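Exercise 7.
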Amino acid sequence: MGAAVLVAAAAWLSLLVGTQPITPADLVAALADPAAGSSAVVLHLRLPRTAAGLLAGAGLGLAGAVAQGLTRNPLAGPEVLGVNGGAAFAAVVAISLVGVGPLGGYVWFCFAGAVLALAAVLAIATTGRGGATPVKIAMAGAAVSALLFSLTSAIVLRNHDLFERFRFWLVGSLTRADLPTVLQATPFLAAGAVLALALARPLDAAALGDDTARSIGARPAVVRGLAVVAIVVLAGTATAVAGPVGFVGLVVPHAARMLTGPAHVRVLPLSALLGALVLLMADVAGRVVLRPEEVQVGVTAAVLGAPVFLYLVRRRRVAWP
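Solution. The predicted structure, written as tokens, is:
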């Protein structure tokens, strides 16, 4: 309940803060009357941006929690597994080479890119002795992500028009979020969230090991397959909306686990709420820290997330899900 209240407060703050400050009275008037003085800023800029932050943050938080539960790897997250990088690369390819425009078109490319990147990371990590250890998965993910972001940058930098359109999106940004994008993304993120939340108890069973999981009626192979689908849908859609935002999917599940314990039935919904809260607050911070300019949410999320993750590591709180 406390996390939900904080998310609501962050959303309220996101509607108020910006280049053009809006008072609470003006905000209420704009929401009540589309003809009010501040309604254009609120309805066409702040509201879609806030909704996009809520959706993308919740998606990244959930995807990170499922990824860590699936791999039993405290370093797993959409960005570490290459999912964000694969989705971003596929989106740029779709837009630059295929000519796909709206999110409803290139989001499918994001899913395909996320699947291929995740498959490549897991395939690389399973080679050699010891199988897919947490360290090998993290190293394979870092290598694949770096390669994909380099290729993405190379494509964008060769096309000036594309660079101007996507230079903010490539570092993670909510500035260009609009109502059609939010409406198109909502069904995908809702479906991914329902699937992820339904996997809470199966993930707890799978964490006991395959033999024990089967003895209590779970089907580990099916759980893994559905978990991969949930990660791809959630992280792929979030990347399509906000760009490749890092650290949210990695840090938020650890914070949720510290607050609730390891049971996924509590970790997953809290990760969704904390993900939305962190991304919204990072976006608000980016609007005020260098006024009148804005710092993109991907930058502020990394600046805020890196010290928190290092603190968790130093406190030895980063543990197996």
